[in-house]
Structures are given as structure tokens and as C-alpha cells.
Design goal:
alpha+beta; two-stranded parallel ribbon; single chain; 11 helices; elongated; 326 residues; 7-stranded antiparallel β-sheet
Length: 326
Amino acid sequence: FGVSVQAFHRANLDRLTHWPHSMLSTSTHDTKRSEDVRARLDLLSEIPGEWAQAVRRWISGNERHWKETPSDRSAEYLLYQTLVGAWPIGPERLWTYMEKAIREAKRKTSWTRPDPAYEAAVRGFALGVLEDPAFTADLEAFVAPLVAPGRVNSLAQLLLKLTAPGVPDFYQGSELWDLSLVDPDNRRPVDYELRRRLLGDLEGNPAPEAILARVDEGLPKLWLIRQGLHLRRRRPDLFGRGSTYRPLPVRGPRAEHAVAFTRSEGVVTVVPRLMMGWSGDWGETAVELPAGRFRNELTGEEVAGGPRPVAALLGHFPVALLVLVG
């Protein structure tokens, strides 16, 4: 499943050649799961054994919640995925999502021919597991180690969107962590006043430590959007028609856990990947930067070109956005 880093670079080069102004979207009005839900769920592909054990354990422990109707393992599995990706989530949001999912699957019910008995059984099961303290405690214990790496995945995806060939698109509400599901969940009112206040808090370029200290508010995501868009407005020549794209070599024991490229030799993107298999120790892993001197738009640090340790580039913020300054 998935693609290699080399295939990712080839796809970006192809887009730059043929569709340099194509829109890059990670959440839309019709997204079944928001970008941040998917970023967390992506982690499950790295821990298939642990995930399978959890699902088997939950199936066994929750069998009693199916009541009189035979269980539907497909719907149940979808429910567990949804809970992991969007947790914490309440019963109304969860059932609205599940109802739409099972009707559009058209296996046992549909919009045009609904099966009230089947839907009542799925609803009863979904609400039953949410009210089961033993299950929710187990679920929370499983989700807790995924929250931080899921957020790093989100930031990595965001920086790739901001700097890869194409035009980045932002769906309403996705400026902060957004664990929304399909419509109407992703069309809930957006708290723009909160976003204005948080943007105000970013005036004066606070230290990365201060931004990361407010991670639960979504400030690192908003900071990355702000800095990336400011750069694109300030230096459109680095990203528009006539710009270039070049993968940057990553070498060392953790090379498979990083992606790096330069646009027009004037801006560099470095992001981590495969977070669940990364111990936090980059060792001697290094990125070969273009010649010159670069400033990190996210931390204010300056680094020289040439081979640079990934540990240093990502030491104060989970991703790096480097701009040539000399």
C-alpha cells in the first residue's frame, strides 16, 4: 500500500510539468474524514498487529451491545476506525456519521430503501459502546499514544501542501486541529473569532517553544499556515510557473523517516514520516541542503547549506521551512 518517497517526488515533478497551478486540497465540504482524522488514522498502517489485537478485543467485549440483531462486522469495524480517528466524539455526531455511511454503502440499507430494524441495531450498538466505561477506557488508552504523532503527521502534510507544486487550498475550520467527519459534521459553524485571536497571539513571532506549549489549541498548525502563506506571498517566484522542484538526498540510519525537497533552490521543505516506527533519535541522518545560507521561517534559526543533521533542523519544531537568505 502507499507509495515510496521516490514515487512521491516523481508525482510532484509531473505535476510541476503538466499542472503547475492545480489545487492541492486535504479537506473539502465533502471529505468523508477531515485531514486531521486521516493523519491520525494513517498511523494504524504502521501498527497493524497492535490495531488488529485491539479490534479483536473490542469485538469480543462489545458483542453484547448488538442486542437481538446479528452483528455486522463491517459496520462495527468502520465504527472503531471512526472512534480512533475522531476521538473524543459524542453520540449525536457519531450516529449521524454512521447512518450516512451504512446507507451509502447500500449493503443492508440505503437512502432510497432504508431498513429501520437494521439501522436501529447499528444505532443501538454505536450508542451502547459509547456508554460502556470499560470500552471507552480501553479506547482512550489506545488513542492516547496516537495523538502527538498524528499531529506531527498533520503538520508534515500541511507543509507539503504549502510548498509542493500546485496551489494550496484550505477548507473552513481546518486552520486549527479539526477532527470533523463527513457533512454535515464538517459544515458546523467555524469559530472565526477564536482564529482571529490566535492569529493575534502570533504577532511578534513568538518562540517555537511558546507555540508548541499551546499545541492543544492548534497554534502550531495556524503558525505553519501563517508562515507558509506569508512566504508564498513574499516570494511567488519560488513557487509559480517557471519554478523548479528537486528532491534533496537524505542519508543516514533514519533516512526513510524524512522527506526533503527544494523549490527553485531558494526554499527547502523537510518533514518527518512513519512516526510510529521512529524512536525520536535521528542519529547521523542528514539532509543535503543547496548551497547558501538559510533561515528557518518557523524557528528563526539560520543554517548553512550542505549536509545538515535532521535532528538539528527539526529540533525546535516538528517540520522545517528553510528560505535562502544569502
